[in-house]
Amino acid sequence: MIRSTISYLIVVSLILACCGPLDCSADEGMYPVSEIAALELMSRGLEISPAEIFDPDNVCLIDGICRVNGCTGSFVSAEGLIITNHHCAYRAIQTASTPENDLLKNGFSAADRAAEIPAPGYVVRITESYRDVSDQVLSAVSDEMTYSERAKAIEKRQKEIEKAAEEANPGIRAEVAEMFAGKTYVLFEYTFIRDVRLVFAPPSSVGNFGGDVDNWEWPRHTGDFTFMRAYVAADGSSAEYAADNVPFQPKKFIQVAPEGVAENDFVFLLGYPGRTARHKTSAFLNYEEQMRLPFIVDLYQWQMELMELAGQDDRAVALKHTSRLRSLANTEKRSRGQLKGLRRAQIVAGPEESQLQSFIEADPQRVAKYGAVLQDIEGVYEEMARQAEYELTFKNLFAACRSLSIAMTIYDAAVERQKDDLERESQYMDRNMDRTVQRMKLTQRDVHPETDRQTIAGMLDRLSTLKQFASQPFLQRWRDADLAERESFLNEIFSSSKIVDQQFADECLAMTPDELNDVDEPFLQLVMGMYPEFVRLRELDKEREGRLDQLYGLLIEVKQDWLRTRFVPDANSTLRMTFGRVEGYSPEDAVFKFPITTLRGVIEKTTGEEPFVTPDRIRELYAQRDFGRFAHPDLDQVPVAILYSTDTTGGNSGSPILNSKGQLVGVNFDRAFEATINDFAWNHDYSRSIGVDIRYALWITGKVYGADHLLDEMGVAR
Per the confidence metrics, is the pTM higher than 0.70? Predict the structure, then answer.
């Protein structure tokens, strides 16, 4: 193990900035794994020692947990077999699909290792060590710095620390994570596996049963699981895909418990939750409610309509859009849920803040240091709100139009790679450039010119209605053109563009900015016209980040002094634990939702029309009541999904649901609609997470699709 007891003690004492006892009165919390021993889990139902979950000096359960791109996975065999969500592997399944061999529609099962399919763009990370580097990071800043200079200095120092760590430990991946804004920073070191392959995926009619209709809803009947495998070079080192690579052998794999769980059972999750914002102020929440979330809902609904229409009669086009469409749909519905939750929970008002301000004003020394903190934070968000519609539209222009996204990557890389490595934007540093190019090439595969044409036209129309747009010279031709002239402009750029040609893109990536100026490529020319504004807004974001980091650092200090307690840091894609029970909830008056759904519900929902289509084989086995050993003893059905009161967010997709003995009983994939507010606040009354029951995953894998060799590999008796 690379972890050390010294690192463990430092992280416990410094990350959580002890001012008093940790509040563990509720099941709320995405706890750093270093804090597990303080949670009194055995009194809550845990049957194993907390040291079996996390021990800085010995192999433990966290060694069986990995990060799969932006999701979580768990090793379930000694041969690198990983279980995660179907939606986490969606891009890999889509990339391998064609209209003639549609793996999304038909599913995929590798008969043996040789048949497993490479998943380009996927990496697996396993946490190996961590240590507090707050002093090193903050030593880069001084009181004389502007906010922008402060943000850049911190960013550069983080890069220096990461680069030094990777040079000292070849083969590892290093990342410095901010735990508390402007206060504490931790260096995490990861085993970094670059050869990941698809092993088994049910068809989307199982893995995405219910589609967007059921997304973020309960009851749920979705078999959202997939098996992948991690491979390394023969000497055990990380390597790109090669036919002679061998399965990775994890230090620990998670034992599958085919008996599953029952209502009220204790469960816990280990994983890599993305971003939460529970230490933000009411000014931030007001910005989210009034500006950003409504913008996202409106913009994404429009984009989804364009893509759905483009692919409705052409499966090849639909396949190009399917991964991005699902991502947009997921974010759009989550944003609607968050809007509803903010209004329902009434947490925007922030009554706590007036009490905190009174506490500050009761002491002259506190007034001198903290008196204007809340007001200054509010000022930043008010500034953001005034510019929100323009800035959000401009930034989303490049994400929405894939051709522009590719062109911006090429030109931005050319500009940035003229700088010293540590001065570049992170994605263009030498250590990251290969992955940046790989992502760009995956985007090139998915470009549909007609959809891009409609998207860029719609985005420019949106910009042209905004007063800030009038001052921007880069698209004057569009602003002043009539409809016919705009059509001519679009015809001109799309008829002559080569931006999706990978050989052309490779040639451009080798050029300097001056050389790109002479390239006859309309999207590059568009990007070069927009680039000064793009850079201005990027620098403005850094300046705001610097201001807010410093202000939130002060806010955390005074809140801890006021409340006399330690805070759990917001989730930030680092390894965390959360726990709760399998339990239902009451979302509204006179309604109670039971926490386990079954195969009977799948059949009852099946209409034969998307998104409620069920494969014939499942319906046949259901009619025969052929459930094998996977029926629930009380329900006499195969359980499909389970509901539990853990604290999760994005990034917990694929997290293992573990029973009181640390065995795998399910795979987390969603939250109830009411729990989309979890990013801002957690409440036991309605915060519920959703996972696929391991019995359904095993029944689908073995009984329905005959991949019994995978059950054998996991040690599951048939």
Answer: yes
- Is there a domain that residue 462 lies in? yes
Residue 2 pLDDT level (bands cut at 50, 70, 90)? very low
**What is the domain count for the chain?**
1
Confidence of residue 341 (pLDDT cuts 50, 70, 90): confident
Give the 3-state secondary structure of residue 462. helix
The answer to whether residues 686 and 672 touch, using CB atoms and an 8 Å cutoff, is yes
With respect to residue 644, please indicate whether it lies within any of the assigned structural domains.
Answer: no
Determine the residue type at 190.
Y
Range of the domain at 551: 282-561
Calculate the alpha carbon distances from 395 to 259, 327, 459 in Å: 49, 18, 10
Instruction: Answer whether residue 265 is part of any domain.
Output: no
Strand 226-232 to strand 184-193: parallel, antiparallel, or no bridges (unpaired)? unpaired
* DSSP state, residue 512: -
pLDDT band at 3 (very low <50, low <70, confident <90, very high): very low
Residue 14 lies in a domain: no
CA separation for the pair 128, 56 (Å, rounded): 9
Contact (CB, 8 A) for 613 and 554: no
Contact 621, 582 (CB under 8 A): no
pLDDT digits (tens, 9 = 90+) for 87-145: 999 999 999 999 999 999 999 999 999 999 999 999 999 999 999 999 999 999 998 99
Tens-digit pLDDT profile for residues 483-541: 999 999 999 999 999 999 999 999 999 999 999 999 999 999 999 999 999 999 999 99
**According to DSSP H, which parts of 278-363 are helical?**
282-287, 293-311, 315-345, 351-361
462 and 401 in contact (C-beta within 8 Å)? no
SS3 category, 537 = helix
d(CA 108, CA 100) in angstroms, rounded, equals: 14
Assigned token pair, 435: 């992955």
Contact indicator for 716, 694 with CB cutoff of 8 Å: no
DSSP per position, 104-165: HHH-EE-SSGGGPEE-TT--EEEEEEEEE-HHHHHTT--TTS-HHHHHHHHHHHHHHHHHHH
Q: What average pLDDT does this structure show over 373-386?
A: 97
Dist CA 682 CA 404 (whole Å): 39
Report the distance separating Cα 95 and Cα 557, nearest Å: 48
User: CB of 314 within 8 A of CB of 376?
Assistant: no
